[in-house]
Amino acid sequence: MIIGLTGGIASGKSTVSNLLRSHGLPVVDADIIARQVVEQGHPAYEKIVEQFGEDILDEARNIDRKKLGSIVFTNEEKRMVLNGIVHPAVRMGMKNEAAAHLKDGHPHVVLDIPLLFESELTHMVDRTLLVFVDEEIQLRRLMDRDGFTEAEAKSRIAAQMPLKDKVQLADAVIMNTGSLEELKDKVETQLREWNMI
Ligand SMILES: CC(C)(COP(=O)(O)OP(=O)(O)OC[C@H]1O[C@@H](n2cnc3c(N)ncnc32)[C@H](O)[C@@H]1O)[C@@H](O)C(=O)NCCC(=O)NCCS
Ligand SMILES: Nc1ncnc2c1ncn2[C@@H]1O[C@H](COP(=O)(O)OP(=O)(O)OP(=O)(O)O)[C@@H](O)[C@H]1O
């Protein structure tokens, strides 16, 4: 079974991913692949520099993610351009990694995809699991984790489908408004319900 793990920015997907890994489940992380496919030498890197110019590069000519983020999270059109370059490569990378885990004999694989619903990727998975927090907690955790101003954090949250709309689309929801201990219990309960542990 392929599980699609999703949620909003700073909802707790990586935290849940780590708990899933601790149960022996392999997790394929779309954010990590999205970083790999824009490294120098990859075709997506060239396309991004062509579209966004050399101003988004740092001294070592790597993509400065902070700079690129400040452009695309305040301009939907530019975000779509970036998505159009990066997402096909991410999809391919995820498929390859998932196939390798299945080939290794793992019966279940988790795909951690922040934009699972926005990018209509549910066909890639058998079940969807949403990590939910209310907007106030999401904003606070995002500002605390990344040191963003309120405006920066809000622009990132606004670039995604509201979490309450994702609740309607998910097969199961894990509430992450409580403590990490509670989260751990909820993850375990969900895995048992789906006969995955
Ligand atoms: C804009 C970029 C350079 C900012 O990099 P940065 O290191 O600051 O953030 P990081 O990649 O770790 O993403 C953090 C979170 O932001 C959110 N996010 C990232 N990209 C997007 C996007 N295009 N639309 C909406 N939310 C996004 C996700 O929740 C993600 O988990 C980077 O996010 C990027 O290249 N985005 C485009 C690719 C993408 O969509 N990645 C996310 C899933 S594949
Ligand atoms: N139950 C919790 N209690 C307190 N802090 C938490 C809890 N769950 C997650 N956090 C913290 O909130 C922040 C966001 O969590 P995490 O990084 O797992 O989110 P994410 O959904 O993977 O984010 P992104 O979309 O940016 O990749 C982190 O600093 C994490 O340590």
UniProtKB/TrEMBL annotation:
Main location, first listed in the record: cytoplasm
Specify the enzyme's EC class, one word. Answer: transferase
Work out whether the entry's keyword set contains Translocase.
no
Which parts of the chain span the membrane according to its record? none
Instruction: Please give the catalytic activity noted in the UniProt record.
Output: 3'-dephospho-CoA + ATP = ADP + CoA + H(+)
Task: Report if keyword Transmembrane is assigned.
Answer: no
**So where does ATP get bound?**
10-15
InterPro entries, alphabetized: Depp_CoAkinase, P-loop_NTPase
User: Pathway of this protein?
Assistant: Cofactor biosynthesis; coenzyme A biosynthesis; CoA from (R)-pantothenate: step 5/5
Stated EC number for the protein is: 2.7.1.24
* Pfam families noted in UniProt: CoaE
Q: Which GO terms describe its molecular function?
A: dephospho-CoA kinase activity
Protein location: Cytoplasm
Give the UniProt keywords, A-Z.
ATP-binding, Coenzyme A biosynthesis, Cytoplasm, Kinase, Nucleotide-binding, Transferase
Q: Which NCBIfam families match?
A: dephospho-CoA kinase
What the protein does comes down to: Catalyzes the phosphorylation of the 3'-hydroxyl group of dephosphocoenzyme A to form coenzyme A.
For this chain, the family text in UniProt reads: Belongs to the CoaE family.
Protein name, per record: Dephospho-CoA kinase
Per the record, the gene is coaE
